[in-house]
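Q: I have two molecules that I believe assemble together. Could you output structure tokens for the complex as a whole instead of separate predictions?
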Amino acid sequence: MCLAVPARIVELHDSTATISVDGILRDVDVSLIEEPRLGDYVLIHAGFAIHRWEQSDVDELQAIRAASDLREITT
Amino acid sequence: MKALIANIEETARRVDRDLKFMEVCGTHTMAAFRSGLRQLLPDNVRLVSGPGCPVCVTDPAYMDAAIELCRRPGVTVATFGDLVRVPGAESSLERERASGANVRIVYSPSDALVIARENPSQHVVFLGVGFETTAPTVAWAIFRAAQDGLRNFSVLCAHKTMPRAMDALVRDQAVRIDGFICPGHVSVITGAQMYRFICQQYRIPCVVSGFEAWDILKSVGMLLRQIAEGRAEVENEYSRSVSEYGNRAAQQLMHEVFEPRDDAWRGIGIIPGSGLGIREKYARFDAAKVLGVTFHEAHVNPLCRCGSVLRGLSTPLDCRLFGRPCSPTHPVGPCMVSSEGVCAAYYKYERMAA
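A: Yes, here they are, computed for all two components at once.
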């Protein structure tokens, strides 16, 4: 239930934003994070942005996902 | 990845005793099973699942109350999808919906507010279930409803918080835990500092972990290193999302709307101070009060071992009900109900090995 996914803000409204997760657009509430900006990566849970990522965090996830392929170990 | 695993194996050899690490988050449980990383752990390191799935630990009396509510004329129950299949004493929200009851699955508590605004003749009850990750979003809905003067919205509140539950686990003499893999997204809200008391009072190392296979393996390695070096500290493997003190705005909102209360955990019992109740100031949004909900003690199958599984004392394979009759399509116990429950994970990924 505590699933949260990173998504990019593609439009900013008042206290809401349109975010893109793998190209799928959705409106979420951004009132729980400070000064959301267009292009920010945010962590989304239950329709709310709960944390803002820096670009280095996005890069880190990409590197981890590349390293997390267990097939190199198990095959 | 190979280097990481080699490092874990080397540190585990140095420790040279059996170790039990507990992950206290259903999403970690699923990630660990799905990725297959459990098979990569050294022989003396065992990963057990704690009471980290909110659906699993929700008291059956709560589900019966929700089912009773959705049968009332003029009431719409709005809920996250996770809860609709959870069996009550004689029905589920899914079954009630098929029979015509107003049960709406929503993605966000804010969607429940929209339903309330669009249906002024209906009273919309949102089922407030979840840990610190989710509670602020429900607090937001209540706060917003109060601001807007919404009169046909309330929350049936069963939110729970992690620290007292983890405290109860380590105080339980039967449960011997050598390290905690702490819930990543709970910690986004609370901050990593929340677990410091476990290290200080009980000398048990804690690592806040992300959700990729790499994150979890790295966290296991960090726990092992702490043990090898005789340390018990809170370390943060998931620093891309978790800070020391968490999301202050979310914490303030939770504090504004909710207050701690004693709460019943399915399979464990009452844990003092482990739940969140709606403050008196927002009592008009407390469904239990405004709709006069009563909670009756629910029947639990005495053979079900979920209580022991949720404390890391048994695995689902130790349960006589596992597989037959208890399965994801006919769950008997709470850990089989949710896709994040440990019995459901065993059923999906380890049944063939049994």
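A: One point stands out. Chain B touches chain A through 49 residues (CB under 8 Å).
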